[in-house]
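Q: Could you predict the 3D structure of 4-hydroxy-tetrahydrodipicolinate synthase?
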Amino acid sequence: MDYAKHEAKAHARETMRGIWAAALTPFDSDLRVDEAGLRANIRHWIGDLGIAGLFMAGKQGEFWALSLDERKRLMTIAAEECRGRAGTIMSISDQSVSTVLELGRHAEACGADYVVVHAPMLSFCHDRDEILYEYYKYLCDRLDIGIAMWSHPDAGYLMEPETCARIAELPNIMAIKYSVPREMYARLTRLAGDKILVSTSREDDWLDNIEALGWQLYLCSSPPYQLQTKADQRMNEYTELAFAGRFAEARRVRDSLEPVRAAIRDTKPGSKPTAHGKYWQDLLGQVGGPVRHPMLNLTEAEKDATRAAFEGCGLRL
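A: Sure. Here are the predicted structure tokens for 4-hydroxy-tetrahydrodipicolinate synthase:
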């Protein structure tokens, strides 16, 4: 990191702009992390697709199936590959706060730009505001790197906008990945959008959020490298049109991607989202590979259906 702790908010506003993507973790046939494949993917994503930043070792990256050393290694590889070319935000999320801090210190040491910390599981708790504030404060007191919050329904609850706005006052809280209903993230944008960058992972809503909420950051999921190829960068195109205020043109480009979205949506088994995403990467010429337990791999019939949809979706290769 090349900023001081008290500069995290300003640094993020200056450097976190445009499309950031959440990386899946490629494994080889023996279920080892495919480091060469990961490096090839990163070079393609930032070199050919112009992705502005990468979110590493998150839920799409199967962090729960990775050892602590493997998570650190993913961070190091991403920092090496992205340095001077794209931004990085490393997921250091874990139920053990000591693990969160260990990963956070590694992120600082390996040259990451930012980290993201998922809201913790809070069993049996119904009044969470003070718990969450003290949790993020504890981390902010011990790490200098910029920290993004992360709220998603799979924690068993959603962080309320007012809670997030209070946490946003902490000196190195600089963003939130806020996977919540639109009314909630719009409210947080009004409450704290001058302090932190608010974003959500739904690509379908990205253009509308630029126009209606003044957002500058897509943070983040896999569509930036699943909906695009070196020859077909319509997500980049509609993003730049929207940033230029040319919203009618941007909507036409965005809407032209609907057959690609439908091909992904209609063939993705409800129990196999990660395996489907990796197979889609394979079809694109990226490195996907198998998944680790507890995730399930696609059957041959599921692959055949996905391949047929891919070939007919109109994505230019």
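Q: Anything worth pointing out?
A: The first strand starts at residue 18 and ends at 22.
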